[in-house]
Structure formats: structure tokens, C-alpha cells
Amino acid sequence: MSKNLTDNEKVVETALRNLPIKMESIGRTVSYGSWLNTFLCSAEAELHYPCRSRVSR
What we know:
The protein has two helices and no strands. The protein is an all-alpha fold.
């Protein structure tokens, strides 16, 4: 995981830098008791991990 974070350092830094601003906006929206509908249009993840053994079937 640390290699992935290091390889994508600029993306991670940008996301962390923008997070407080986004959370403040969301907090203001829901603090008045209104409903907040959110939709996840897409998500993408790529996981790399060492495979130590293979299982034959």
C-alpha cells in the first residue's frame, strides 16, 4: 500500500488538501436538517498484492 501511495503522491495530496473544503460544504448542507442524496456514479480501484501460491482445481 505504501508504494501505491508513493506512486500516486500528487493525487493523494490533492485529495487530502481538498477534503476539508468538501466536508465543510457537505456539513453545511446537512446541518439544517435537510436530506442529502448522494449518488456514486463510478468507482475504480486497483489492488496489487504478492501472490505466494496458486491453487489448482
